[in-house]
Amino acid sequence: MSVSLRSRPVAHPRRTVRAGWLADAFVFVVLLLSTGGLLPLLHLERGVDFDHLEGDPTMQIVWLAVYGATLVLLATRLRAVAQLLRGERWLLLLSVLAAVSVFWSVAPDVTFRRTVAIFGTTAFGVYLAARYSVHDLLRLAAWVLGCAAVLSVAFVVFLPAYGIDDDGAWRGIFAHKNSLGRAMALAVLTLLFRMRQHGSANRLITIGLLVLSGVVLAGSRSVAGFLTAVAVATTLPLWPIFRLRSALAISAGLFVMIGLAGAAVYISTTPDLPELAVAALGRDATLTGRTGLWSLAADAITDRVWLGHGYAAFWLGWEGESAKIWAALPWRPPHAHNGFLDLGLELGVIGIVLFVTGFVWATWRATLVIRRTKTVYGLWPIAYLVFILVVNIAESTILVQNSIFWVLYVVTCMWLIRARSDASRMAA
Q1: For the whole model, what pTM was predicted?
Q2: With the C-alpha atoms ordered 157, 159, 162, 167, is the resulting torsion angle positive or negative?
């Protein structure tokens, strides 16, 4: 029961604590669901298949409940949410483009349904940015990803029929080893930040989870996940250079960042170069057929070069435009294994330009945040932007509904909006 003071309700402290705990529990569960683990694997192993057009009815109900709860939570922070949306126009424009693409989509019903999903996913990210500091949200994310690592090991050891793929690679609680690989790459990044902020007892737990995530990543044999983890881990020590006052030092830092990003793209998309590296990891030089897929996807973009085929309307199996690519390949890719190509297929060159412009603008703001803050969490935005760049070379996480990767990208962009007026968002 609340106590009134001048007609304004005052929440009981115990109720406030309880509400905060319930909100944290809600966020934990939603983030765990958004990793894409457990439920898709159980469906796969039980032979449950869903129509590419209709999707999974059970999960649709679950996610609709999540979106509804998110809207209720957002309603309690309308002023903060309005400020964030006014400041981050590029994400808003990209989301609006996805929504209006229903008018030219090759599968308008699918586009409409999944537009609802991406708006709900983005809204959840906005709520997290409005409610949490970097420190608090990464604490929750570290526990979520650590839980995914522990559960994956449990599935590998005790339920190998579920946790180990036919070729011997680990997939843990995920339907595919690459899904496990990119989740563990994100776990490595998150736990690296957490490790530098803990006391001795919690620090040992964090180090243990970090080592476990690395072991699981190695077990997945995911080249994309491995390269992503290496990229973020090796570049992380470079970002404090932006805190120096020397223009030469800052220029050198930018040069290194651009050089590493360019090298990653070039190596990953040139089949002759990575032969030795991928051979050492047991993979072929074409990155398991990705280069052929990329060529076909690029050709498909030219069919609708400016506005694409409609949001989430291309990869619909044999019933969609993806049938042409499936017919030309000996395997059945669920997406282009490249976030920028998938964005081009769905929203055309205009969609790519909107995302890239927003990404570059966010990168610039991230360098300014580094200069204005002294804590390790001031480095998170630039580190996560590098993560998104690298992971989308061989996987697709841009504008993907119900995905932890898109949620955290939204959160990161929104934090950058608030960084100047609310320094605590980047504080430990």
Answers
A1: 0.87
A2: positive
